[in-house]
Automatic annotation (TrEMBL):
Keyword Kinase: yes
Family as reported in the entry's similarity comment: Belongs to the type III pantothenate kinase family.
Binding locations of substrate: 96, 103-106, 183
Localization (cell): Cytoplasm
Source organism (scientific name): Comamonas serinivorans
CDD domains reported in the protein's UniProt record: ASKHA_NBD_PanK-III
Gene encoding the protein: coaX
Protein name (Swiss-Prot/TrEMBL): Type III pantothenate kinase
One Gene Ontology cellular component annotation held by this UniProt entry: cytoplasm
Pathway stated in the Swiss-Prot or TrEMBL entry: Cofactor biosynthesis; coenzyme A biosynthesis; CoA from (R)-pantothenate: step 1/5
Pfam entry (one): Pan_kinase
Co-factor note (free text): A monovalent cation. Ammonium or potassium.
Length: 262
């Protein structure tokens, strides 16, 4: 039962093919495509893959992009589903005012992260940071309840906003410095520490609310840029969204089999 997991963000599509749809399954192939190039997946990366038995995706890039990916998936007859955030799934309770309005990537990542935390430090609250096009900083308590989260601009959006709103900030990328002494370093450091500061605040909020030190996990395409500059110890786990899709796939298959047997 091979399983294709797909994560479509606002910048890139990430995919991973597993031997089966369950946590710990062997990874058979994976790839990344910028959204500009997704229309060639069927004739490039996916052309050499055998049809997966199941496909599960999460998408936050909008309906037009989703439709273009559906067309690429048409090379196979595989059943395709997309995750829609619900009030509760796979051990996570959705605290959003309107649960379906939560980003599907955040929901799936929280499920993946919760399972990782439960395996090793059960009952620990956590702070989950995703550094992609945007940055999200989400809090989950010890019972698996999503308390709420922050959304802020990612590095690229922050820089473009500053460039377009000013006359004097068109400069090359700089370095992260404690005391930046040129415009490039000031911009790069400002963005990095804005994100780091938001994470620190959320850690304080969770600590105060739960009375326990949270576990801190980080993922996303730009996570490696942020990780060295965090003051708390963050575990960088690239696969959190795929881990969440594997957990959801396994749960849904178990439910399907129970229904079929009854
Ligand atoms: N080698 C790289 N290729 C693409 N993006 C990168 C790379 N290194 C860092 N990034 C950063 O990662 C972000 C994309 O991360 P990703 O998690 O794929 O975002 P999204 O899920 O929003 O599509 C880009 O906005 C960019 O800032
Ligand atoms: C916050 C996001 C834009 C992050 O997207 P990304 O950076 O992964 O492309 C996405 O999760 C989203 O569109 N969320 C819907 C709104 C919400 O979560 O409240
Ligand atoms: K994402």
């Amino acid at each position: 039962m091979t399983f294709l997991a797909i994560d479509i963000g606002n910048t890139r599509l990430k995919w991973a093919l597993y031997e089966r749809g369950a946590p710990g399954a062997a990874l058979l192939a994976q790839g990344v495509e910028f959204l500009e190039h997704i229309d060639r997946l069927a004739e490039s990366d996916w052309a050499s893959l055998a049809a997966p038995d199941r496909v599960l995706g999460c998408v936050v890039a909008g309906d037009a992009i989703k439709q273009r990916v559906r067309e690429q998936l048409d090379i196979w007859d595989s059943p395709v589903s997309w995750v829609v955030p619900s009030p509760a799934e796979a051990g996570v309770i959705n605290g959003y005012d309107f649960p379906t309005r939560l980003g599907a990537d955040r929901w799936v990542a929280m499920i993946g992260a919760r399972h990782r935390v439960q395996r090793t430090t059960p009952g620990r609250p956590m702070v989950l940071v995703m550094v992609g096009t945007a940055v999200t900083v989400d809090a989950i308590d010890g019972d698996g309840k999503f308390l709420g989260g922050l959304i802020l601009p990612g590095h690229g959006i922050m820089l473009r906003a500053l460039e377009s709103g000013t006359a004097g900030l068109h400069v090359p990328t700089g370095e992260v410095r404690t005391f930046p002494t040129n415009t490039s370093d000031a911009l790069t450091s400002g963005g990095t520490y804005a994100i780091a500061g938001a994470c620190e605040r959320m850690i304080q909020h969770v600590r105060a609310h739960c009375g326990v030190e949270p576990r801190c996990l980080m993922t996303g395409g730009a996570g490696w840029k942020m990780a060295p500059h965090m003051s708390a110890a963050f575990e960088l786990v690239d696969s959190i969204i795929f881990d969440g899709l594997l957990v959801i796939a396994e749960e849904r298959e178990a439910i399907r089999q129970r229904l079929a047997a009854s």
